[in-house]
């Protein structure tokens, strides 16, 4: 989406300018040891003065112009401070946290592009959802202006060949597969940096495991390469000085490197990952950010990263709970009473659900009549469609004021809405039942967005909402993270996802609420929950929970956890680790280790994983070299391109063993049964998968 200007931008800029003054006064030269002291030095800080021009951090005028677009803006002071942290511009890892719409993406993108320019090595940008990937690809295409290819690696898009690519935009799953492949063919050095947006996903019970695996492997590999370099350098120095041996030269060697499968527990050499500017230049720089990461310090320690935290949000966001006609503020007091006329249907109905529907409709009505737009989160795909249908029937939704979008002008449409409807009719790849409903509601300024829409439909809906053709969008939580849309008001139709036993938590709530009041688009934002006052006030006030490693052992609440099994199998499968010392250094690069009170817990979990993998013949211990080696089952489970975790691989192998004893070839049904994908715990096969 474009960073469209509107008439309230001046207020936004004024607010930004105020804090620019404060932040510049706060900063001093000691925060920027890398300073070169001159404008255009590329280090951003000169003589203790914080520089707020993007060109001070990026010497290439074309790229600066790509970022600036048509706008004339400066960095927020916090963005400049963050970029100026010691070593960050030279390639030191960086972890930072700022509220939603705080401007986090710009910092990461500027660093990624700068690194691409300096090193010629590919930047990997990892995002949790496809909708975000689509936006990001379009954005990088604009910024890079064709100088480097931008590769899409999500859904059905893209293979794992990234040679010559400037920026790869991918989902967590694809990033994990790509890094596994790069380790396998020893090409990880072709990555200049990895940007992980929504870094709190590391704690996600379903997908966090993959993120932690990927980042741990990068950390380990970087540390290993640096240790080898340091050892070689020390050996060269020693031989020059005529002294024997290279011991104590900065490469921490763990005792027991040729021993058996036991583990000792000395700490990983911090020298291996600290180092000088030139050492940063060689490593794969990890840049991670989130708006909802309260224990960001632990994560920064894990990634050996510079740390930055701010609570600066350029556009204020207010939170409310609507109960009947009353709107309660965060403090629990009535902020205002909705002045819907007595004729507004069901507004005062006794039935809770009817009343909530009427309040939701009034909240939408108020907003669109003021020339703004509403994002309404619903608990399910059906819920989105029903809500969109009802709102389109009930409300008169005018087009938002604004110019014709580029595509509407190009097609000679009289209005953005006319263009959107024509475009919708012309889509070639659609979900038919959703399409029928979209054709009913879009002409009335309403749409819906969920995972069953095709990417063509989703993209059209997003563009129609961005340009003002549509002003009410009913969506599932997949639209919760990172997407930049012109949303004045977010309404939560329910405070749970799916069913009531899956209530929204504070992290989800904040991500979803944060879609309102985006900088550069609007001057204020509102998030409104419907229903139970006590529960919803608690949700608004609750801070996001700290994240934990998904490599922890399974427990009663999380029986599906894999402990260290998957990560160790993957590392052995690509020969990243083989000796006991390797394993030890590897597990020290995990978040589990960074967040565990003692290393013993990690050692026990590692030993249990090794034993199980050995027992089930995923890996073996080869003598006399005393190394771990992958076996065919392990390779099938954890080699590049495999999506099977060890448990799924075992289940599939058991099925195949059984089939071998009595395969029924009279018809294809048995074969069909065997090749049907195994759903993960709690997953259902989608219609598309069944059709395939
Ligand atoms: N220095 C700046 N001046 C003006 N606008 C900015 C600046 N930095 C970022 N923006 C704009 O602010 C909007 C929000 O920024 P961005 O998407 O980076 O936020 P974010 O912190 O990543 O939010 P989220 O956590 O919700 O993804 C974007 O439209 C972006 O172009």
TrEMBL record:
Region (Disordered): 234-271
Keywords, ordered alphabetically: ATP-binding, Helicase, Hydrolase, Nucleotide-binding, Nucleotidyltransferase, Transferase
SMART domains: DEXDc (SM00487), HELICc (SM00490)
Domain Helicase C-terminal: from-to ranges: 362-568
Superkingdom, taxonomy of origin: Eukaryota
UniProt GO MF annotations: 3'-5' DNA helicase activity; ATP binding; ATP hydrolysis activity; nucleic acid binding; nucleotidyltransferase activity
Catalytic activity: ATP + H2O = ADP + phosphate + H(+)
All copies of domain Helicase ATP-binding, residue ranges: 85-311
InterPro entries associated with the record: DEAD/DEAH_box_helicase_dom, Hel308_SKI2-like, Helicase_ATP-bd, Helicase_C-like, HTH_61, P-loop_NTPase
Composition bias, Low complexity: 234-256
This enzyme's EC code(s): 2.7.7.7
Protein name: DNA polymerase theta subunit
The organism of origin for this protein: Monoraphidium neglectum
């Amino acid at each position: 989406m474009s960073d469209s200007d509107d008439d309230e931008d001046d207020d936004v800029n004024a607010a930004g300018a105020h804090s620019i003054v404060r932040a510049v006064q706060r900063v001093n030269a000691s925060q920027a040891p890398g300073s070169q002291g001159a404008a255009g030095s590329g280090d951003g800080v000169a003589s203790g003065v914080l520089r707020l021009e993007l060109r001070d951090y990026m010497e290439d005028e074309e790229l600066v112009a790509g970022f600036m677009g048509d706008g004339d803006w400066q960095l927020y002071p916090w963005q400049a401070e963050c970029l100026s942290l010691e070593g960050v511009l030279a390639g030191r890892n960086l972890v930072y946290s700022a509220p939603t719409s705080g401007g986090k993406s710009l910092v990461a993108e500027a660093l990624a592009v700068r690194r691409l320019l300096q090193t010629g090595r590919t930047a990997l940008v990892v995002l949790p959802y496809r909708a975000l990937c689509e936006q990001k690809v379009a954005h990088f295409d604009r910024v890079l202006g064709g100088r480097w290819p931008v590769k899409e690696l999500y859904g059905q898009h893209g293979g794992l060949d990234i040679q010559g690519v400037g920026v790869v935009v991918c989902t967590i799953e694809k990033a994990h597969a790509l890094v596994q492949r790069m380790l396998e063919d020893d090409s990880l050095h072709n990555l200049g940096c990895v940007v992980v947006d929504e870094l709190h996903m590391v704690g996600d019970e379903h997908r966090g495991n993959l993120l932690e695996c990927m980042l741990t492997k990068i950390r380990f590999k970087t540390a290993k390469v640096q240790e080898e370099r340091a050892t070689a350098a020390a050996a060269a120095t020693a031989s020059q000085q005529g002294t024997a041996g290279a011991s104590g030269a900065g490469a921490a060697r763990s005792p027991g490197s040729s021993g058996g499968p036991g583990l000792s527990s000395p700490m990983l050499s911090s020298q291996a990952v600290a180092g000088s500017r030139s050492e940063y230049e060689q490593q794969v720089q990890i840049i991670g950010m989130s708006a909802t990461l309260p224990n960001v310090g632990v994560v920064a320690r894990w990634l050996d990263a510079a740390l930055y935290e701010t609570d600066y949000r350029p556009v204020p966001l207010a939170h409310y709970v609507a109960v009947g006609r009353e709107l309660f503020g965060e403090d629990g007091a009535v902020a205002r009473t909705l002045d819907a006329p007595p004729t507004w249907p069901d507004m005062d109905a006794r039935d809770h659900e009817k009343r909530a529907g009427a309040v939701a409709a009034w909240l939408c009505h108020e907003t669109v009549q003021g020339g703004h737009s509403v994002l309404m989160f619903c608990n399910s795909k059906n819920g989105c469609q029903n809500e969109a249908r009802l709102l389109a029937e009930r409300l008169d939704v005018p087009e938002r004021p604004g110019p014709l979008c580029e595509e509407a002008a190009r097609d000679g449409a009289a209005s953005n809405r006319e263009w959107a409807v024509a475009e919708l009719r012309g889509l070639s790849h659609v979900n038919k039942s959703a399409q029928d409903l979209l054709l009913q509601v879009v002409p009335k300024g309403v749409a819906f967005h969920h995972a069953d829409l095709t990417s063509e439909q989703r993209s059209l809906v997003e563009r129609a909402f961005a340009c003002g053709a549509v002003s009410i969008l009913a969506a599932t939580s997949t639209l919760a993270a990172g997407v930049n849309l012109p949303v004045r008001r977010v309404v939560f139709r329910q405070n749970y996802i799916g069913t009531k036993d899956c209530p929204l938590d504070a992290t989800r709530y904040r991500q979803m609420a944060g879609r309102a009041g985006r900088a550069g688009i609007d001057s204020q934002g509102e998030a409104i929950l419907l229903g139970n006052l006590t529960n919803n006030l608690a949700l608004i006030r609750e801070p996001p929970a700290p994240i934990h490693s998904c490599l922890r052992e399974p427990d009663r609440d999380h029986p599906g956890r894999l402990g260290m099994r998957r990560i160790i199998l993957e590392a052995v499968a690509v020969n990243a680790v083989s000796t006991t010392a390797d394993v030890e250094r590897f597990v020290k690069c995990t978040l589990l280790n960074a967040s565990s009170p003692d290393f013993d817990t990690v050692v026990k979990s590692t030993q249990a994983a090794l034993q199980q993998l050995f027992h089930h013949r995923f890996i073996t211990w080869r003598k006399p070299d005393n190394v771990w080696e992958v076996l065919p089952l392990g390779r099938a489970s954890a080699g590049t391109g495999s999506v099977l975790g060890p448990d799924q691989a075992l289940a599939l192998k058991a099925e195949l063993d059984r089939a071998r004893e009595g395969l029924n070839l009279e018809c294809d049904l048995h074969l069909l049964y065997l090749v049907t994908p195994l759903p993960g715990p709690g997953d259902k096969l989608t219609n598309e998968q069944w059709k395939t």
